[in-house]
Amino acid sequence: MSRRLSLALSPTFLSLTAAVSLAGLALTTASTAAAPKNSLAAAPKNSLAAAIASPSRTAVNVARDRYRHPAQTLSFFKIKPSHTVVEIFPGGGWYSEIIAPYVINGGGTYYAAAPDRGLNGFRKLAATNAPLYGRARTAAFPVRAATDTGVPAGTADVVVTFRNVHNWMMGDAPYADLAFKQMYAMLKPGGVLGVEEHRLPEKADAALEKKSGYVKVSTVRRLAEAAGFKLVASSEINANPRDTKDYPEGVWTLPPTFTLKDKDRARYAAIGESDRMTLRFVKPR
What we know:
It is built from 13 helices and eight strands. The protein is of the alpha/beta class.
């Protein structure tokens, strides 16, 4: 055995080598621990994960991620940062907080589309952070008059609507047919329509669709397919088997609305948010 090999295998050398290896492992472990899962540091700057983890989101909205599964839902709808994305009836901006920065910072375009008064929630959100939301666009939906400025026809890659179809079916002048036709028109050929909606059992009385906030999957399919869409996928991402769908004030009995206020609140909180269908349609090429 050579002197060089003998030295390399000596106890002193082996001890030093082990110490250096352990020190390196400790540094690696510490570095990994410093970047927690789903943190901005752990995700590429313009990734969906970074948009969901962004500190610009409000805490009350983040707390509802466990019910709404934004990462899985938006991935299922095939949204990319370079896309033109239209969010129909954004309400107070729960999804806008994620989608708008994600596509705007990625080179895409974000539209919030609703009747004028239905855009007040988004405008309020946008006013809190002009640098973040300043490039977002608004549009009338549905377009009812020549003076309404809607989303230009054939320009959207993805149109999404979250828990809104029931709104278009209720009241004295339902317009669900018109809504689906206009969403179809704004999409490019091959574009995606993503629908999330409170789900009514297929065997339930259809009259409940006019007052409960729940809608049958078959009804959404009928509306979409009549407009020209093709259903390409469905997901149970937002399913909730605890939802019995038989409440005195419909879906609004459940969180986050709690229409009954403190009456049986613990019971409804334990159920959580509603059982929801998650459907992906496509506009044929």
